[in-house]
Automatic annotation (TrEMBL):
Pfam families xref list: GreA_GreB
Limits of the Transcription elongation factor GreA/GreB C-terminal domain: 71-143
GO function terms (MF aspect): translation elongation factor activity
Originating species: Paenibacillus ehimensis
Protein name: GreA/GreB family elongation factor
InterPro entries: GreA/GreB_C_sf, Tscrpt_elong_fac_GreA/B_C, Tscrpt_elong_fac_GreA/B_fam
């Protein structure tokens, strides 16, 4: 267990909490500007995510490090195994401003990102995206953020 990695990860997760606390309205205005069902759903989703972050951050160091390798967070790399053909693929869940399909950096707001966020290692999920649905097992989770997220806009 690398103590400096744990401290850096903890700092980044605290920064995510602060960001959602202080910039939630601006974030929602940028990525879901119209009031309605979709925005309410996104607000609830962010509330659920931040509640999980608060619980993780309250853990002692051993539990905290375990969470970094068992729960998909913004900044986690997640390896999935497709049940239909056994192939595997890894994604990193990121803020929308850092999306990079060529690196498999997936926004937590994308259909795939929203369904993977908060998943646990070992879970099997049916992922539904515009192109169809497929079953995956969460093979590996590890917090991988090496950089800070950026402001929206």
């Amino acid at each position: 267990m690398n103590p400096s990695f744990g401290r850096a990860a903890r700092t980044q997760l605290i920064n995510q909490l602060l960001y959602f606390d202080e910039q939630s309205s601006a974030f929602l205005d940028d990525f879901c500007p119209q009031q309605g069902k979709e925005r309410a759903s996104l607000e609830k989703f962010i509330e659920q995510y931040t509640a999980v972050l608060e619980r993780i951050l309250a853990q002692d160091e051993v539990q905290f490090m375990h969470s970094l390798y068992s729960k998909v967070l913004i900044g986690s790399s997640v390896k999935v195994k497709y049940k239909d053909d056994g192939s595997e693929e890894a994604f990193t869940i990121v803020f929308p401003t850092l999306t990079a399909p060529e690196k498999n950096y997936v926004s937590f707001l994308s259909p795939m990102g929203r369904q993977l966020l908060l998943a646990a290692s070992g879970e099997v999920q049916t992922i539904e995206i515009p192109a169809g649905s497929f079953n995956v097992s969460i093979e590996e989770v590890k917090y991988a953020y090496s950089g800070e997220f950026t402001k929206t806009g």
